[in-house]
Specification:
172 residues; Protein Binding, DinI Protein, Chain A; 3 strands; rod-shaped
């Protein structure tokens, strides 16, 4: 299996070098394009606001749990076992309240994560599609057969189309 992978790598390099020239190959720095894309900045602000909203609610629910813990600790501190035994109905009620609130927190966290994922997809997919379409358009106009993400390459002798993609998207 190892020899097969090695053979495939050498075959790709050998045959690939015969058919791919530097003029067929382009690179683009997608992160640079996205970081300067106004729509991406707006989407990031919306996502940050949603994250902050959920974090605030999660902190509020965590504080409610801590309040119950502190209350139980204050009520039982310094008490004898017999006194604590006499308080069991009240302590059990608080334990039940704690468990209910803890489950509500877990449910909220799951719903928040799902909402964030859906919102992120809804906001970023159209932006990613615009960038991808622009890359395709610029690559076709330059006659490129292949375009790679620039950050993935250690060395590139291909045409860098990052500035052309930004120009096509109306980014300065």
């Amino acid at each position: 299996m190892k020899n097969l992978k090695l053979f495939a790598a050498f075959a790709l390099i050998f045959f690939g070098s015969l058919s791919i020239s530097a003029q067929d190959f382009g690179v683009v720095n997608v992160e640079e394009v996205l970081s300067t894309f106004p729509e991406k900045a707006n989407a990031d602000k919306q996502l940050d606001a949603l994250v902050e909203k959920h974090q605030t609610e999660i902190r509020k629910q965590q504080e409610a749990l801590l309040a119950i813990e502190r209350d139980v600790q204050a009520k039982t501190e310094g008490k004898s076992q017999a006194e604590i035994q006499g308080m069991m109905p009240q302590l059990e009620a608080q334990q039940q309240e704690y468990m209910t609130k803890q489950q509500a927190l877990v449910t909220y966290q799951q719903a928040a994560a799902q909402e964030l994922g859906e919102r992120e997809n809804a906001l970023l997919k159209p932006i990613e599609d615009k960038v991808k379409n622009s890359i395709n358009k610029v690559a076709a106009a330059k006659g490129l057969k292949y375009v790679m993400e620039k950050s993935l390459l250690l060395y590139s002798n291909g045409v860098d189309i990052t500035s052309d993609v930004k120009k096509d998207l109306g980014i300065n």
